[in-house]
Design brief:
The chain is an alpha+beta fold and about 325 residues long. Among the domains are: about 40 residues, no CATH class; about 110 residues, Band 7 domain (Tetrahydropterin Synthase, Chain A), CATH 3.30.479; about 60 residues. The chain has eight helices and nine strands. Strands 6, 7, 8 and 9 form a four-stranded antiparallel sheet that branches. A three-stranded antiparallel sheet has the order 3-2-5. Helix 3 crosses helix 5 and helix 6 packs across helix 7. The N and C termini lie far apart (about 210 Å).
Length: about 325
């Protein structure tokens, strides 16, 4: 073998070595897991082993096959042409934009490779999208149009859809993290009806608010009026009490005065009675005479006869007194 042939063979061996060396190199990214499939030499089929993230492995290229799956969270939005069309329980069409987030179970990567999909793209397009386009309709379609417009009812339906979807994805090695409605739209004609209904409801709420406000104002005015009436009643009661107290005081004063006058009159009457009794006794006549005499003592008495003729007579004072006392 000449030198040229030897160099050619050495070159071929080097190329083969480089080819097999480079082709045998397999690696996983920091968020990937690897799955090896044995094609020749050994137990054929998908190896039930998970090759960990961020590692390098060497397998003969022709005798082995290699696949990786990304374990990061994947987000799928269904909007625009891919939006969901849902018919509500009462027969109205809804166009719903939805969002889903999911990830694969790393421990089920060999199962996914053997029974579900070869790549992340195939898993996403042929499995995940197909299931998520069908299953949510069962739960959202169970709502009426009015229920769908209420966030609480819609979220409950989404929770049920998530549980239902996860029961399916368990068979595919997928973990569903989130199911949510981003937006929804009605048919234009029905949207007009909904808008008019909302406007009417808003006006109704406004009128109810005005009525309630007026009721509160009426209550406030009633409370103020009741307060004024109570104050007036209290003021009137005060005046009445003061008047009654003043009258009672005046009555008591007049009663005391009347009692005093009665007592004084009674005393005077008793004194008169006593005097009359005294005068009716034997010494009473003497006392009367003494009193008259005492009063006439030192007084000048002139007697003028009646008629035109003068008839002057001598007055005997003692006899006059006797005559008066006898009477």
């Amino acid at each position: 073998m000449n030198l040229a042939a030897k160099i050619l063979w050495v070159g071929l061996l080097v190329l083969l070595f480089l080819f097999f060396g480079l082709a045998s190199y397999h690696a996983t990214d920091s968020t990937e897991v690897g799955v090896r499939t044995v094609k020749w030499l050994g137990k054929k089929g998908v190896e039930n082993k998970v090759y960990q993230p961020g590692s390098a492995y060497f397998f003969l290229p022709i005798f082995n096959d290699w696949n990786t799956f990304d374990t990061r969270l994947h987000v799928l939005e269904m909007r625009g042409p891919s939006q969901l069309t849902i018919k509500t329980r009462d027969g109205n069409d809804l166009f719903v934009d939805m969002i889903f987030s999911y990830r694969i179970d790393p421990q089920k990567a060999p199962y996914i490779r053997q029974y579900v999909a070869r790549t992340d793209e195939e898993l996403r397009e042929k499995v995940f999208k197909t299931v998520t386009r069908s299953r949510p309709r069962d739960f959202l379609g169970a709502l009426s149009t009015d229920e769908f417009t209420h966030t609480e009812s819609r979220n409950k339906a989404m929770d049920l859809a998530k549980v239902g979807l996860q029961s399916i994805f368990d068979n595919y090695g997928i973990i569903l993290e989130r199911v949510a409605v981003m937006d929804y739209r009605f048919e234009p004609d029905y949207l007009k009806v909904i808008t008019e209904k909302k406007v009417a409801e808003a006006k109704t709420l406004e009128i109810r608010a005005q009525i309630e406000a007026q009721r509160e104002a009426n209550k406030r005015m009633l409370n103020e009026a009741e307060g004024q009436v109570k104050a007036l009643i209290a003021q009137t009661h005060g005046r009445y009490s003061n008047a009654v107290s003043a009258v009672d005081a005046e009555f008591d004063q007049r009663k005391i005065l009347a009692d005093a006058i009665l007592t004084e009159g009674t005393n005077v009457s008793l004194s008169v009675v006593k005097q009359r009794e005294a005068m009716a006794s034997a010494g009473g006549e003497t006392q009367i005479q003494l009193a008259i005499a005492t009063n006439l003592m030192g007084k000048r008495i002139i007697m003028i006869p009646s008629g035109n003729a003068l008839n002057l007579q001598t007055l005997d004072l003692n006899k006059a007194l006797e005559s008066i006392l006898r009477k």
